[in-house]
Predict the structure of Transcriptional regulator.
Amino acid sequence: MSRKKETITLSIPPGTKEKLEAIARRFNIFWGKSPSPSGLIAAIAQQELEVGEPFVLTQLQLQALVKAIKALINSGEIKDAQLLTELLFERGTLEPFLRQSLLRQISQPTEIWRKILEEQIQKQQPFLLLYLNSQGLEETFTVRWADLKFFEKEFYLLAWCEETSGSEEVLALVHNRCFRLDRIVNILPINKIWRKNLDFILVQLHFLGELAKKYQKRVEDVEIWASYDICKVTRKVFNTFWLMQEVLADGENCVVVSPDSVRDRLKMRVQMMAQQYNLAIYKE
């Protein structure tokens, strides 16, 4: 037995019927071979479709959401990253390359590598690290000590590696490496001896002005001497890149006093910046 249908009479302006038929045709709603305005109204009432201005993301909105997805993945919030990716796939007009890139990030997230690395570190298990460098070339490193650190909203692998070729570190730290998790290709356990820690050097820093007053002790700090306008800190440093990022961000209120290998490296960075702005450099 067929269901009894209700009948309503609509009072609509001239030309509206044709517009309804056009919308019904667009959504493939037909009665026989003709578009069905009544079928369209029923579909709207049953919330089977939406009409009106389509929800479209601008290019800037797309870029912001892609950055947000990457930040969520890097911080371990995989479920939130997946939900945001689903929204982009549903509502955003994505180029094929970007769509594939997002799919790779979700299907092979850095969270997987982070968990594997945490297991290796907890067991003190040395491993081979297969890694893609910045040129996209695969390299292999023999890792005999490792730890995960959170820098600038992203997890990094700090590792002591047997290989030193290509290292840009100061001589005492050439075995120390810093790896991005999203460039890891594979991790393979090996039979080696786990080390006690990374190599380190002692760096003397002077914090001036407001930084001297507000300085808070860090785990790596070995010695601190503070007065009203200066705070002298001796710190264990495992990676000069992150140290220089900190010093440059603090500007004139932070000075590397020693060793010369680190001080000279920082001076070179400052000189290069000055040349870009056509500034004269004071010679010691």
User: Anything to note?
Assistant: The longest strand covers residues 138-151. The chain has a mean pLDDT of 83. The chain has four domains: 16-45, 59-108, 123-189, 201-276.
